[in-house]
Structure formats: structure tokens, C-alpha cells
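Kindly inspect this today.
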Amino acid sequence: MCGGQYIAKAIGMTRIAEETGLSRPSLYKTLSEGAKPQFATTMKVLKAIEVKFN
């Protein structure tokens, strides 16, 4: 999910961390290359950056 880190930085890591309930260090770790976050964590991040699925 390394591309997600660029999007998250553009939106604001602090805002996303607050909305997901993750600490900023945890959020960076979750979005780092090679990370294997849990599905629930991924969904929280996607919701925070307002990704919509149809």
C-alpha cells in the first residue's frame, strides 16, 4: 500500500490518524511498502480518505 502513503500525506496524516483511531507512527507503518495491514485497518484508512466502492 505504498501508494496510499502519498495520498494520505496529501490529505494529512494527522487527520487520517484521528479519523481511524491509529497513531501517526502506526499509520505510517500500515502504509509503508511491504506492510500487511489487517483488512479492518485498510477499510478505516480508505474510509478516512473517502474512497467509495460501488
The mean pLDDT is 88. The chain is about 65% helix and 0% strand. The radius of gyration is 10 Å. The CA atoms of residues 20 and 34 lie 20 Å apart.
